[in-house]
Amino acid sequence: MKKKIIFPLLVLLLILCACAEDKSFFKDGALANQETTAADLEAEKRWEELEEFLEMIVQEEIKTQKFYLYGSEPGYEKVPATNLGYLPFYTNEDLGIIEEIVPLSNTLVRPGKTREQTKYIVIHNTGMASPVMTASRLSRSLHNSTRQASWHFTVDDHEIYQQLLLDEIGWHAGSPEGNNYGIGIEMAVYQGIDMNMAMRRTAKLVAWLLLEYGLEIKDVKRHYDFSGKNCPQVLLEAGRWEEFLRLVEIELHGQKNFPDAEFVWETLSPEIMDDEGKILSSAASSVRYRVTISLDGKKRSYEFGSLIKMMI
Helix %, strand %, coil % for the chain, to 5? Predict the structure, then answer.
């Protein structure tokens, strides 16, 4: 009698062992449900991480303030400007870098030496505030420059231009340490610029470079850190350096962790703010907006509101 019981048990045991190798045997059973649950949990974790990322972007208060641009041109030594405020709506759009590499024949601009190591991203802003001194104009002027000065990228509120090869030494930091180990970025700050967008565009570029070279936020430096020069003067005088670093942190987090997510922002107060997060009128006291995120074939929308705080 015992033998008759043992034999079927042995057969059942062999079947279970075989099915452990072929999980499809349970495709309609408990094992498949466990796998689905694990996948769902992982997907939900990603959405939770995205929601935490949104907390970095959304602000309870949007600040409006006055500041100044500084230039060496007569009549543009100190140009008043207004920051109506913004929200740093993150998108994973391409940087759109326009290459305008200075010819090697201009040895005053291109020393023709390769960096042994990249340790810093060095931020500058121009001392030319006239309305014509855009990134495009500055990039072109560097090609024929007779000064021993150069940098890798020029950025404004619309475009990014590249003047030197990434691993090439440039003369921009005022010290061997900054020049030999740093990538120089010049922000063109002309009269009429959307300074908020220029800062955001520069932050996107900086974050990309940090990832390319395995650097961290602490490696983002001011020209001032190497030579003591009051540069980037606009950010320093307006007390906006920490604000800029926060923009870099947002861009770095998004580019590193969510390259496969799509973010579509929409203002729900179009008379007050546009879809890029730019405040259009400081007369209002609050604004509402929505973001729709696409990830792994699924979409979720979130709505937020922020107050507008006058500081002028």
Answer: 35, 25, 40
pTM of the model: 0.86
192 CB-near residues (< 8 Å, 6+ apart): 131
Asked whether 130 and 188 are in contact (CB, 8 A), the reply is no
Residue 266: Cβ within 10 Å count: 14
Residue 188's Cβ-side half-sphere holds a number of Cα atoms within 13 Å equal to 26
| Both structure tokens of 211 | 């990832």
Whole-angstrom Cα distance, residue 182 to residue 164?
12
- Give the model confidence (pLDDT) of 103-150 as tens digits: 999 988 888 899 999 999 999 999 999 999 999 999 998 888 888 888
Q: Which residues contact 187 (CB under 8 A, 6 or more apart)?
A: 123, 124, 125, 126, 154, 155, 156, 198, 199, 202, 232, 234
Task: Flag residues of the chain having pLDDT under 70.
Answer: 1-36, 311-312
pLDDT at res. 5: 43
The pLDDT score that the predictor gives to residue 31 is 47
Among 284, 289, 286, which Cα is nearest to 304's?
289
Kindly list the structural domains of the chain, giving each domain's residue range(s) and its CATH number in brackets, ordered by start: 57-83+94-259 (3.40.80.10)
CA 277 to chain centre: 15
Handedness of CA 238, 239, 240, 243 (dihedral sign): negative
**pLDDT, position 35:** 59
d(C-alpha 273, C-alpha 282), whole Å: 10
